């Protein structure tokens, strides 16, 4: 049988690893592997990406539309399902207004590029702000705090140029996630080792001895939830020892003196006691980072999931700014996303538009507002369950699984049951889709054309790839973005992207819709398609640009001490501590529970695949061996873990990576029926331990999903 090999890229996560796919005479994908000729990923794939063929051909995959009738799912044509959903949607808009229609665009909606802009256009057209995404579940502050702090228009130092890097709560060898300045996800172990061999100084701040911490030049294994305290202490040292970039600060930092005054309570003794770190390690870390001269501090999801995520992110931005970790006039930033809007990099501070507060739609709960053009996930369940103006009555859950992703799982379960219409676009029966009124099976990665546009914000090089579909789609499926187009067309709702109308007489092709998204890009989509569809992704050197001088009229400076940051720093310093430096509010609990990544799953995706489940289907509760011994527990023993918000069952495992008093579990597992009989098969939802109402970030609504005080009881 003849085999044709085609170039594509993975869309399991946003890293877009390049792949070669073998197609047989029948048009079926029979094998795939990393594309060793690719200049970005160099043949690297992870175990999840190698499942793309299995996903496409999986016997349990939903390949059409299903409707729940009398508690059972029955198949119906996709067109009929869309007709019925459109009718119901219109009824709800007529009865309750546009705001009653909500969308949650999950991880796999993000992987299908036009879904987000079309979803937002749809919601704008029906006057509904009820758009939610994982953006406000794990790391909203990275993007949104820039409008408060300022953004360097020349770009932050990339890992490839770094002399020093500081990873805060980012297990970069496992997470396949590279924030700006962080470790790129391709062959990360080799890449890191090469950098270390070339003299990189790596500081890791993490309450766990993670895979990346084990390779660090310096690991600060701090008490969970104290990232802000540690960074405040390091900043104080950097200022007092005048280790900052004085010339840069003189021109671009506002109120350095005020910042120093606010850091007064964070002296070395205090920070050492509170973070449970030796004082000399804190000093060494501050001096090491400040010595640079190049390289950035970056965070993973853990610090934002911990208390005061937006304040922590502000401190990270501040330490980078004080040390001047940006490309300057005349330098060429490593990153220059080819398919994004091409702006001339400049040696100046700019302020993105305000993203929350005054002028933004208010939630009815917790004083939160829209953040950007989304509502915080924190309030979704209450917005569904609480009658009154603005109550959500329909939810389109697109490529995600709110049942395992959102805080307070019991409340989310009640909320989903309470809806008048729940539509899930999901290739599998999941904790969310099995509660849906309609499940629509999506086209999966190998069946789709796609461009690397969304992933390119993480690329360290100006890299792009346009892929054709590798195989014909199976069944009667739909793409996530097409869903919005189909419903809008039925309701005569006009859609637009970047101000340009989307054709509504006939569904646009994937290329047409992607072209609308990529308007104004550094490199045209047509060129990217022409040069990469057959040959594979490439680096577009023409996208690179030299950082220009700052504009004559630009006098912006980074705001290192806005009013609310000053207030929050004071609040942190006033938190009562016990003699050991532990927050008194947590004294009644035996452990602090922290989140962790695991390599086989990407958030809530991948849990249905046997090959991935064989690496572990449960989210073990890792504890220090001394803790297990003290409780008389052996590995794999069952325990009940309780927080102020709820309880879950867990299976413990010994781990020397943790300090005594810390327990670590992965999130996005389990369902409301997780119990002792099935915890080994499906794990437990740590979100049952999370309160959406008690502990949340005041700006982003990010619930405290890590550093949660818990008690543990042997079962
Ligand atoms: S890192 Fe992400 S994109 Fe790369 S193979 Fe793994 S899942 Fe796919």
Q: How many E-type strands?
A: 30
Low-confidence stretches: none
Strand content: 15-25%
CATH level 1 name of the domain at 140-333: Alpha Beta
Indicate the percent of residues in helices.
Answer: 25-40%
In whole angstroms, how far apart are the ends? 57 Å
Major sheet details: 7 strands, mixed
Mean pLDDT: 93
Structural class: alpha/beta
Number of separate helices: 24
**Full CATH superfamily name of the domain at 140-333:** Dimethylsulfoxide Reductase, domain 2
Bound molecules: iron/sulfur cluster
Q: Report the radius of gyration as a whole number of Å.
A: 25 Å
**CATH fold-type name of the domain at 140-333:** Dimethylsulfoxide Reductase, domain 2
CATH architecture of the domain at 140-333: 3-Layer(aba) Sandwich
Please characterize this protein's 3D structure.
The structure is a single chain. The chain is of the alpha/beta class and 715 residues long. Among the domains are: 65-136 and 364-440, Rossmann fold (3-Layer(aba) Sandwich); 140-333, Dimethylsulfoxide Reductase, domain 2 (3-Layer(aba) Sandwich); 586-714, Barwin-like endoglucanases. It has 24 helices and 30 strands. A seven-stranded mixed beta sheet has the order 5-4-17-16-15-6-7. A six-stranded mixed beta barrel has the order 25-29-26-28-27-30. Helix 2 (78-96) crosses helix 18 (480-490) and helix 4 runs parallel beside helix 18 (480-490). It is globular, with a radius of gyration of 25 Å. The mean pLDDT is 93. Iron/sulfur cluster is lined by residues 10, 12-13, 15-17, 45-46, 48-49, 176, 185.
